[in-house]
Amino acid sequence: MIDQYIQQYGRRLYGLCRHLCADPHDADDLYQDTWLKVMKNISRFDESRDFEPWLTQICVNTYRNTLRRLARSPFFDAFADNGEKDRVFENARAPGKPEYGELHEAVDKLPEKLRMAVILFYFRDMNLEQAAGALGIPVGTMKSRLNKARKLLRQHLPECGTGNSISPEKARKDL
Known about the structure:
CATH architecture of the largest domain: Orthogonal Bundle
CATH topology of the largest domain: Rna Polymerase Sigma Factor, Chain: A
Strand content: under 5%
CATH superfamily of the largest domain: RNA polymerase sigma factor, region 2, helix turn helix motif
CATH class of the largest domain: Mainly Alpha
Number of strands: 0
Shape: globular
Number of domains: 2
Order of helices and strands: HHHHHHHHH
Distance between the termini: 35 Å
Radius of gyration: 17 Å
Number of helices: 9
């Protein structure tokens, strides 16, 4: 049964992992950890519901847990301040796709909550309800995060617009 899910959803899941993680090795680890958790918890899956949102939620939660674990790591205590840590990690990031390099760079600089909303809604083509469900937030909060993210992206990517409001449909095409 798991093999069928891997075959059907594996490529999309790996794409999500690559969007979440700057480093391909971290994306591989996240992909593997997600499927391990799916295997462990498959008995909890309600077959009357869609599998992909459940899978996405496991992936997002696994990613968040990894970030929390890294934030508590003694490695981070070696930095004098967050600015120093950010400079080190900025230089260690893997290069994005050249044709969307500026966009991916701008999205990567968004606060984590906004970045996750953008990735799920625009890059993974989830609707508002699916993305909100994957993040465990109300739809209204999802809309608010997307609006804030668009405003911040407009500031960092002025060539994407003239300062006028960007509709979600146009932004989805642009992203």
